[in-house]
Design a protein that fits this description.
Elements (H helix, E strand, L loop, with lengths): L3 E6 L4 E14 L2 E5 L6 E14 L5 E14 L2 E5 L3 E3 L5 H16 L4 H28 L1
Parallel strand pairs: 1-6
Antiparallel strand pairs: 1-2, 2-3, 2-4, 4-5, 5-6, 5-7
Helix pairs in contact: 1-2
């Protein structure tokens, strides 16, 4: 079976680049699974975990993304996200602490633009905490 070249890139750096058997990620309308031979596609993705099943059969890579864009071309999957964090680097306690600070900021602001920014941050932090919790359960 053919493999996919998968690249997950954040605004700061490449988080993952390698070959995979398949990729599962949080699409805008639900979970998307990408196998070799998938039709070309460009789509937005939601907050959640990108699961990359490695081509060598020695496991998988899980990466939290805070939304972004997916591009599928023949043999290639590219995920672009402002925020992408390897599962091993996720810290649920820090995400919850940041969410609590954001909730406090939301209570103290009246400007609609500021409220929208804080609400978007809250959604991302809630998704990050949930992903950390879920991935921690899978490991144990």
């Amino acid at each position: 079976m053919a493999n996919l070249q998968v690249d997950v890139v954040s605004a700061e750096k490449t988080i993952f680049s390698g070959e995979a058997k398949f990729v599962v990620l949080p699409g805008e309308s639900g979970e998307l699974g990408i196998l070799p031979g998938h039709a070309p596609l460009i789509s937005r993705i939601n907050h959640g975990t990108v699961k990359i099943v490695l081509a060598d059969g020695k496991g998988e890579e899980n990466i939290f993304v805070a939304g972004g864009i997916l591009e599928v071309q023949p043999g290639t999957v590219t995920v672009l996200s402002d925020t992408a964090i390897r599962a091993a680097d996720l810290d649920e306690a820090k995400a919850i602490e940041a969410r609590n600070r954001a909730e406090e900021a939301l209570r103290n602001t009246k400007d609609k633009a500021d409220i929208a920014v804080v609400e978007a941050e809250l959604a991302m932090l809630a998704a990050q905490a949930a992903a950390a919790r879920k991935l921690r359960q899978v490991r144990h």
